[in-house]
Amino acid sequence: MAEERVQRSVRLSPAVSTAIGVGSLVLAAVASWSSLLMVVWGRVVPGWALSAALLVIALVLRWVLTREGGPADASRLSGKRAVWAWWGNCLLIVMAVLGTAGGAVDDLISSAEYHVLRPEGPGGCRAVVRETSFLVIANGEAYAVGRTGLALGESGSWVVDDGYRPIDGGTYALEWGRDGGYLQISGTSTDPVIRGGSADIDCGW
Predict the structure, then answer these.
(1) What is the pLDDT of residues 42-58, one digit of tens each?
(2) What is the C-alpha separation between 171 and 165, in angstroms, rounded?
(3) Which 3-state string (H, E, C) describes the chain?
(4) Distance between the two ends of the chain, CA-based, in angstroms?
(5) Do the Cβ atoms of 154 and 35 come closer than 8 Å?
(6) Which of 13, 104, 117, 189 is 20 to 30 Å from the Cα of 20, by its Cα?
(7) How far apart are CA 143 and CA 117, in angstroms?
(8) What are phi and psi of 162, to 5 degrees?
């Protein structure tokens, strides 16, 4: 009896439960369509894998809240609100699934490779590069990853002819200074850099 009273006392209100449930889905949907990646124990977790994990967490969280009478309890909502809430949740889930699937397929088709470059910069700042190639064109994106291990967007990008991958080929230079790092990309005489070729690695010191 006492345990039941405690459970009732800590149960979240419908408004808070709804906010948590919808917020978690929004986070998963936004992450699936953004330039996001994370470095964990020296290994790169692609953005699509992160968004997939966030989506699973969001769905599990919503299931738990539903069992506790949370946001998916239609009896607590008016008819119109329940319908709009249901459609809104479905839209967020579809967006997250499409973004996650799109990122995974893109990595697969373009044979994406992720590299954590050495040396590491001051304050634990690291340069991470994603290299891809399709047909006769190769692309690269650089990311600045700080102590949190999370990169929220690109620091620079480049395009190289004939599918050449400069990081994999070792034709690059990474230098660190007080204000951050500078990544210089070089092609070869037969596989030149078509666009871009450098990136400022700034972890926001």
Answers:
(1) 899 998 998 888 888 88
(2) 9
(3) CHHHHHHHHHCCCHHHHHHHHHHHHHHHHHHHCCCCEEEECCEEECHHHHHHHHHHHHHHHHHHHHHCCCCCCHHHCCHHHHHHHHHHHHHHHHHHHHHHHHHHHHHHHCCCEEEECCCCCHHHCEEEEEEEEECCEEEEEEEEECCCCEECCEEEEEEEECCCCHHHHCCEEEEEECCEEEEEECCCCCCCEEEECEEEECCCC
(4) 54
(5) yes
(6) 104
(7) 10
(8) 65, 25
Q: Provide the CB-side half-sphere exposure for 66 (13 A, CA).
A: 10
Q: 30: closest CA among 92, 110, 115, 119?
A: 92
**The two structure tokens encoding residue 171:** 């034709």
Distance CA 54, CA 57 (A): 5
CB 192 within 8 A of CB 161: yes
Q: Kindly report the pTM of this predicted structure.
A: 0.77
Tokens of 102: 């799109």
Residue written as tokens 């069992």? 67
